[in-house]
Amino acid sequence: MSRWPKKRSAKTGLPPGSLVHIGDRLTEKTKITVLDYYGANIKEKEISTVHECRQFKDSSTVKWIHINGIHDVQALEGIGTIFGLHPLTLEDIFNSDQRPKMEDFCQYAYIVLKAFHSDDNQANDIHPEQISIVLGPTFVISFEKEEVVINKVIL
């Protein structure tokens, strides 16, 4: 029998703000969708790299950036750098087992909530889905670990 306990998480022993995904990896590729609102118009665009988000940061329009797949450390670090997100906010986004909460930072508000959805095959099985939302002065960034069809979400 070993004297030393085994690590319970990949984060054990790391300093606060270390970016390690905690939870199931449910998508292969991170998908980034941008909705750009200006006046009565809206433009939806799927982008392939995080660096393309930089063009939306300083524009005068209101933009919603939605990220499916929170396992990609480089992608979330890039979003954090572009929009000035605190390392502890990014750490919380990576931890898909967060409890619902709201934190007020000077430049943005961070919200974690749970939504519930059912599988296509088994309507009686309800699964929780963590959704992290960052609200800034002219942007909304939402993160979820897998793409959920909206009409199947039970709030």
Structural write-up:
This protein is of the alpha+beta class. The chain has one domain (31-146): 2-Layer Sandwich (Beta Polymerase, domain 2). It is 15% helix and 35% strand. It has three helices and eight strands. Strands 1, 2, 3, 4, 5, 6, 7 and 8 form an eight-stranded mixed β-sheet that branches. The model is unreliable at 150-155 (pLDDT under 50).
Question: From N to C, what is the helix and strand string?
Answer: EEHEHHEEEEE
- Taking the alpha carbons of the first and last residues, their distance comes to 46 Å
CATH architecture: 2-Layer Sandwich
Give the helix level as a range of percent.
10-25%
- CATH homology superfamily: CorA soluble domain-like
What overall form do the CA principal axes indicate? Answer: globular
CATH top level class name: Alpha Beta
In what range is the share of β-strand residues?
25-35%
β-strand number? 8
Low-confidence stretches: 150-155
Largest sheet geometry:
8 strands, mixed
CATH fold-level assignment: Beta Polymerase, domain 2
Q: What structural class do helix, strand and pairing data support?
A: alpha+beta
Count of alpha and pi helical runs = 3
Mean pLDDT: 79
Integer-rounded radius of gyration = 17 Å
> How many separate domains make up the residues?
1
Tag the structure with descriptive keywords.
single chain; 155 residues; Beta Polymerase, domain 2; 8 strands; alpha+beta; disordered C terminus
